[in-house]
Amino acid sequence: MALEKITSVSGRAVFVPGADIDTDRIIPARFMKCVTFDGLGEFAFYDVRFDPNTGEKTNHPLNDSRFDGATILLAGVNFGCGSSREHAPQSLSKYGFKAVVAESFAEIFFGNSTGLAMPCVCLTAAEIDQLRQAVEADPSVEITLDMANKRVRSSTGLDFGFNMPESARDALVAGRWDPIQELLDREPQIADLAKALHYV
Amino acid sequence: MGKSLYQKVWDAHTVGKLADGRTQLFIGTHLIHEVTSPQAFGMLRDLGLTVKYPQRTFATVDHIVPTENQDQPVDPLAAEMMSALRDNCDDFGVTYFDLKSGKQGIVHVVGPEQGITQPGTTIACGDSHTATHGAFGAIAFGIGTTQVRDVLATQTLAMEPLKVRRIEVTGQLRPGVYAKDVTLHIIRILGAKGGIGYAYEYAGNVFDDMSMEERMTVCNMAIEGGARCGYVNPDAKTIAYLQGRPYVDMSDFDTTAARWLSFASDSDAHYDDVVKIDAADIEPTVTWGISPDHGIAISETIPDPAKASTALEKASIDEALAYMKLPAGAPIKGQKIDVAFIGSCTNGRLSDFREVAKYIQGHKVAAGVKAIAVPGSQIVAHQCEQEGIDKIFSAAGFEWRGAGCSMCLAMNPDKLVGDQLCASSSNRNFKGRQGSPTGRTVLMSPVMVAAAAIAGSIADARELFELEPQAAVA
């Protein structure tokens, strides 16, 4: 089961403002009444993209046609906090995002995203603000995550080193972001440990 | 140097290192529910895999269960999710505490109740409030659905170890200050993101003195402070709680108990950080905004953006107050409420309902307030009904419901409407969390919810109920 090696991600970007964007915001719970993840893309950020009273589109960045087709999400601190729902990164991925750049991530969201081959990398607030200014001035600006060299670059010449736990970066770059086969391979060791532990 | 409980449990459950440097961690106990498991079983089938250790996975149904008529999901999607769980458990031989079992309830209430939650173990569940089980000295954390697949298929996960922050709360809690206030206060001080990268060890005489149910309330909200798991070291109370429960092996209980206690942190354990809090500084705490770290004491005023020290802080207050429609600088006390909710995996246990029942007799829920009381499990409901607690709630004007997650989140018929403001004993005040995209949540302890329900506005329970010093926590 060969997995894609995520060595570089490039695309146009959109900035979604706010700290502590929780996974209820990313995918409201009522859209989790489903037994597959198919179709979640259209509900990403639903309650902030559509006015709850009128159903009209709000001025949310994802409704701004200048950013249509953006594949890199720029965000603030503690992105993806709250519920562990994988529906959140699934909805972003199915919406079309290939990577998230933020100041920091909640851990469960981070792990869920890595498992979907969607890198989450950290820059400082000032660096993200420079990227925001670049894409808001010209939405055609291309942002590239160079996973091998741990850099985020823009076609306008910005170039920043990013932070990311090394194991997650390795998993993406080496094409082992889905660990299932490796976990399965240790079956004998798992069985030995299970026997040694005192569980009922 | 000694080890913390976190390190001991981690070491005992390590299978080995993966190629990317992560640890393959054995998961002793796996809990599942209807919302985050169906896709995992689907992935398992797609890969031609099976559930490797079915005796280590336990299922119940909680998120989508209606609380008025539990067995009548009002919409076909909810019914489909419930039947998918039934089929998956049947197909793979997983124990399922279903609606007919008399043991159904919120997964984080059921685990401890059944004695499935035990010290020194690893517990995973596709739900962030799995941190609750840390009250027993377990390392318990929420996982995504793909990881649910990993646990089903291998009973292991690829994990990075956390750092450990010891949070010591010492001294005397004041009357009317509950476990909920302690946990909201900690989150207020350390922030909603303060715990990223950490497990929280809750220590000090305040946690020692708490009941197991109070410890569960505290650990439940570790995740709201950004910590993926939180725990209290096991002690005699932990042992006493578990003794005789259905899934506890009583054949050589003394040995079992000694083994459990051996997981407690060593006195010379290494901590990456230590935070000390004086219990006397904690007041009944309520939230005013849209993040669990937007907390203030009931005697304080709603933050004023004009007084913010940074532009970022000002923007954050502006956004929160615009959503909450609360006046900057005004007292939080006296703000009108529409709905009162007592329940959830944070505060839906027997002791929560007992405590409220002590004070609401002779009072009535204010006109125009919808108040619901939702036991965390069928067993909690049954115990309350045996003690007549349901009658006390009903007489005071609360609707007494069946067990489920109810109005903590918006996956069942219990939802806010429009911009209703809810005094809630649950754990999250996120925008839209309680089912209406404009609904507003103010988090607080169950006794404070009861006071708000009766006053019709956010109230100080100490004044309304003339609270005496609490024996259990004092």
From TrEMBL, chain A:
<dbReference type="InterPro" id="IPR004431">
    <property type="entry name" value="3-IsopropMal_deHydase_ssu"/>
</dbReference>
<dbReference type="InterPro" id="IPR033940">
    <property type="entry name" value="IPMI_Swivel"/>
</dbReference>
<dbReference type="GO" id="GO:0003861">
    <property type="term" value="F:3-isopropylmalate dehydratase activity"/>
</dbReference>
<comment type="subunit">
    <text>Heterodimer of LeuC and LeuD.</text>
</comment>
<feature type="domain" description="Aconitase A/isopropylmalate dehydratase small subunit swivel">
    <location>
        <begin position="5"/>
        <end position="117"/>
    </location>
</feature>
<keyword id="KW-0100">Branched-chain amino acid biosynthesis</keyword>
<protein>
    <recommendedName>
        <fullName>3-isopropylmalate dehydratase</fullName>
        <ecNumber>4.2.1.33</ecNumber>
    </recommendedName>
</protein>
<keyword id="KW-0432">Leucine biosynthesis</keyword>
<dbReference type="GO" id="GO:0009316">
    <property type="term" value="C:3-isopropylmalate dehydratase complex"/>
</dbReference>
<dbReference type="InterPro" id="IPR015928">
    <property type="entry name" value="Aconitase/3IPM_dehydase_swvl"/>
</dbReference>
<dbReference type="Pfam" id="PF00694">
    <property type="entry name" value="Aconitase_C"/>
</dbReference>
<comment type="function">
    <text>Catalyzes the isomerization between 2-isopropylmalate and 3-isopropylmalate, via the formation of 2-isopropylmaleate.</text>
</comment>
<keyword id="KW-0456">Lyase</keyword>
<comment type="pathway">
    <text>Amino-acid biosynthesis; L-leucine biosynthesis; L-leucine from 3-methyl-2-oxobutanoate: step 2/4.</text>
</comment>
<keyword id="KW-0028">Amino-acid biosynthesis</keyword>
<comment type="similarity">
    <text>Belongs to the LeuD family. LeuD type 1 subfamily.</text>
</comment>
<dbReference type="InterPro" id="IPR050075">
    <property type="entry name" value="LeuD"/>
</dbReference>
<dbReference type="GO" id="GO:0009098">
    <property type="term" value="P:L-leucine biosynthetic process"/>
</dbReference>
<dbReference type="InterPro" id="IPR000573">
    <property type="entry name" value="AconitaseA/IPMdHydase_ssu_swvl"/>
</dbReference>
From TrEMBL, chain B:
<keyword id="KW-0028">Amino-acid biosynthesis</keyword>
<dbReference type="InterPro" id="IPR050067">
    <property type="entry name" value="IPM_dehydratase_rel_enz"/>
</dbReference>
<dbReference type="InterPro" id="IPR018136">
    <property type="entry name" value="Aconitase_4Fe-4S_BS"/>
</dbReference>
<keyword id="KW-0004">4Fe-4S</keyword>
<protein>
    <recommendedName>
        <fullName>3-isopropylmalate dehydratase large subunit</fullName>
        <ecNumber>4.2.1.33</ecNumber>
    </recommendedName>
</protein>
<feature type="binding site">
    <location>
        <position position="405"/>
    </location>
    <ligand>
        <name>[4Fe-4S] cluster</name>
    </ligand>
</feature>
<comment type="subunit">
    <text>Heterodimer of LeuC and LeuD.</text>
</comment>
<comment type="function">
    <text>Catalyzes the isomerization between 2-isopropylmalate and 3-isopropylmalate, via the formation of 2-isopropylmaleate.</text>
</comment>
<dbReference type="GO" id="GO:0046872">
    <property type="term" value="F:metal ion binding"/>
</dbReference>
<keyword id="KW-0456">Lyase</keyword>
<dbReference type="GO" id="GO:0003861">
    <property type="term" value="F:3-isopropylmalate dehydratase activity"/>
</dbReference>
<comment type="pathway">
    <text>Amino-acid biosynthesis; L-leucine biosynthesis; L-leucine from 3-methyl-2-oxobutanoate: step 2/4.</text>
</comment>
<dbReference type="InterPro" id="IPR004430">
    <property type="entry name" value="3-IsopropMal_deHydase_lsu"/>
</dbReference>
<dbReference type="InterPro" id="IPR033941">
    <property type="entry name" value="IPMI_cat"/>
</dbReference>
<keyword id="KW-0408">Iron</keyword>
<feature type="binding site">
    <location>
        <position position="345"/>
    </location>
    <ligand>
        <name>[4Fe-4S] cluster</name>
    </ligand>
</feature>
<dbReference type="Pfam" id="PF00330">
    <property type="entry name" value="Aconitase"/>
</dbReference>
<keyword id="KW-0479">Metal-binding</keyword>
<dbReference type="InterPro" id="IPR001030">
    <property type="entry name" value="Acoase/IPM_deHydtase_lsu_aba"/>
</dbReference>
<comment type="similarity">
    <text>Belongs to the aconitase/IPM isomerase family. LeuC type 1 subfamily.</text>
</comment>
<keyword id="KW-0411">Iron-sulfur</keyword>
<feature type="binding site">
    <location>
        <position position="408"/>
    </location>
    <ligand>
        <name>[4Fe-4S] cluster</name>
    </ligand>
</feature>
